[in-house]
Specification:
Helix content is about 40%, strand content about 20%. It is α/β, with parallel strands linked by helices and about 325 residues long. The chain folds into 2 domains: about 190 residues, Isopropylmalate Dehydrogenase; about 120 residues, 3-Layer(aba) Sandwich (Rossmann fold). It has a 10-stranded mixed sheet with strand order 2-1-3-12-11-4-5-10-8-9, with helices on both faces.
Length: about 325
């Protein structure tokens, strides 16, 4: 039986994790969940929101499904998410954004995959206070990280029968840093004659995304633009409750929704488990369980097509009602 780390998180994390585990179980797929707690709730006992045992579990199992984890603000702890990505070298952040059946949005044919570089750019956190009135942040772009994320995007495109990989930069202004990212894209692109190429500036991309998003296929971006654009794309398909994600490296992969722990609706049986469920479906595909992934996806789509929605999508179903409906459809 496949062993997978499950970080059930805090806030709405445990509720949506329970829902997803129940749905996968109902599909007939047997998974040996290695449940690991992390976040605000473990600090008192273990002195850190990300104990070593969590990292060891992922290193052992190679794959994790992760519900949102809160890092307490202002208590000196580094972000759990950033730490995980660093410690496991999860260099690619993958966010597929596709319209869901019956979920009303401005556009109906959005099917975009955002591939965001996850380790450098302004997120390297190199800042200094020059004087009282001046602060500097350093944007770090390396050839190695740029080439490997572009290669990841093209490989993803081939594996998932996508047609185009578009690189997003501001290389007309940041000629050296974004210029290096663009140069890396061009070099890697030469190895993929079957995939269409496109280059776009990030400001133009944002305008095009809110006017005609269906023209885009796979986007590859440096870290900061990737962060902003992937939230924009999540908005195009119905918001945080349905936005899935994954952080992938050479050795390990952690699948997680885009949203945070939503403390405002914690414990109220209101949270939408769709984003975590879609992340889990992507995880099942990643480990080769295509038929189970497909069955679960169909059951989710049927539930939505039947008009069963949680409150964030304008419905009246509780987390439990929604989960039970998916189980029923399985
Ligand atoms: P973080 O900083 O951890 O990302 P945040 O406060 O910026 O957290 P979220 O925790 O994602 O963002 O919540 C933003 C809003 O979206 C909240 O009002 C929350 O209730 C709502 N929300 C987020 N995820 C879900 C979900 N799965 N189902 C329903 N509502 C959600």
């Amino acid at each position: 039986m496949r062993r997978i780390t499950l970080i059930n998180g805090d806030g709405i994390g445990p509720e949506i994790s329970d829902a997803v585990v129940k749905i996968i179980e109902a599909s007939g797929l047997k998974i040996d969940w290695d449940i690991q707690t992390a976040g605000a709730d473990v600090i008192e006992k273990e002195g850190t929101p990300l104990p070593e045992r969590v990292l060891n579990s992922i290193k052992e199992n190679k794959i994790a499904l992760k519900a949102p984890v809160t890092t307490p603000i202002g208590k000196g702890f580094r972000s759990v998410n950033v730490q995980l990505r660093k410690a496991l070298d999860l260099y690619a952040n993958l966010r597929p954004c596709k319209n869901l059946p019956n979920v009303k949005t401005k556009f109906d044919s959005v099917d975009i995959v955002v591939v965001r570089e996850n380790t450098e750019d302004l997120y390297a956190g190199i800042e200094r206070q020059v004087d009282n009135d001046t602060a500097e942040s350093i944007k770090v772009i390396t050839r190695k990280a740029s080439e490997r994320i572009c290669k990841f995007a093209f490989d993803y495109a081939i594996k998932n029968s996508r047609k185009e990989v578009c690189v997003v930069t501001k290389a007309n202004i940041m000629k050296l840093s974004d210029g290096l990212f663009l140069e890396s894209y061009r070099k890697i692109a030469e190895n993929y004659p079957e995939i269409k190429k496109r280059e776009i500036l990030v400001d133009n991309l944002c305008m095009q995304l809110v006017q005609n998003p269906s023209q885009f296929d796979v986007l590859v971006l440096p870290n900061l633009y990737g962060d902003i654009v992937s939230d924009l794309c999540a908005g195009l398909i119905g918001g945080l409750g349905v936005a899935q994600g994954a952080n992938i490296g050479l050795d390990y992969a952690v699948f997680e929704p885009v949203h945070g722990s939503a403390p405002d609706i914690k414990g109220q049986n209101k949270a939408n488990p769709t984003a975590l469920l879609l992340s889990a479906i992507e995880m099942l595909k990643y480990i080769g369980e295509f038929s189970y992934a497909d069955r679960i996806e169909k059951a989710l789509f049927k539930t939505l097509a039947n008009g069963i929605f949680t409150a964030d999508l304008g419905g009246t179903a509780s987390t439990k009602d929604f989960t039970d409906a998916i189980v029923q459809n399985l």
